[in-house]
Write a structure and sequence with these properties.
five-stranded parallel sheet; alpha/beta; four-stranded mixed sheet; 23% strand; globular
Length: 430
Amino acid sequence: MPHALTELKVHTVTKPAGAVSHPLTADVCVVGAGVAGLSAAIESARLGRDVVLVDSLPVLGGQMVTSLIGLFCGVFGNGPAYRRLTRGIFDDILTDLERSGDLHHNRGHTVTVTYDEVALGRWIERRVRDLGIRVVLGASLTDVTREGRRIADATFATRYGTVRVTAPGFVDASGDAALAWEAGLPCRLPERTIYGSQQIVLEHLREEHQPGRDELADRVHARADAYGLPRRDGLAFFFPGRGTAVLNMTHIPAPLDPVEASAAQLEGREQADRVVEFLRAEFPKAFGDARVRAYGFPGRRQTRWLKGVHQLSLAEVRAGTRFDDAVARTAWPVELHDRADGYVWETFDADHVHYVPLRSLLSPDCDNLVAAGRCADGDAAALSSIRVMGPCAAMGAGAAHALDLAGPDGTVHTVDRTALRSRLAPNVDA
């Protein structure tokens, strides 16, 4: 027999004063749930650690899901060998998404991998749940407490109340070095804007008529002014057999001011609409019926990053310098988007590999924090070659193992480098 609607009681409540609403304790707190943070959280959980993973967005996956990047970069070396350079989380992602038909390998100078962001998002969510990682989403970092050379806790604002996470180890995979910044640790800023992109997914395309990469770039260069496009080049990544493509043809600023960042997001979508107009008119056989299926969140490449013990240099990237504390490697080109109309694209030869040392992930002023992903320290050009998904995932795994080797009361600055190298061999030696 159904209950009478009047039996559902309503209580009057008032927010309690003072105390933190939701205190959490963990072995490791990871800030940022993009590829670097996910790799750090998953690897820490596999090491038996209790992990809290926090992100300001309401979903897991960071830019690789919400910004519709649609392409795994920096996972493989250059041709003709196309050696796998990053293992760990990518072993399972590539295996599982290939089995479900949700990725495609593209062979050129190197191998990039087109993927379906919806399938990847669900893969991430299932893996995080299976490992028992506690997740706090929609959480903005508001305060960090330091005790001497250690971070004691981090406080986040959520729509459900304040969350304070206390842990002996922290990973800053926020992308903008938000944890290091709020902790009062020195960070780096580029002297001029490094542009991000507004990615979109187009559908109803006729891929048999898709223009070649050079043809598309040449047409954009010649006709950009007519359509109000600041960027004079661009890329369209078609997903074979689906009539869809991810477009990377815009340049938008990536400010750290909240009002300016919001304005940049709106401008990015206007640019994206002009790109669609351009494609429909200039390549009607391929794009005449194109429609926007989705606008990504603004893609950000290089904004603010940690000042590390060691700043990776362009000279070290070009030379492929080996480090005894290496945690990641890649062969990805220098890809510096520091002007509105284009970017620097400096490729390397077939055998080239360059490395990221643990020292570039460590603040000289903190003992229990490891940065990962695009929070790592490098000069602007060097960072542009290591901030892609392959090495970012490897840095996340490196962060997890560095904290594990340091232990709850130790320092990441004195971990046994031989032991670290042994644990990370698939990502730096194999």
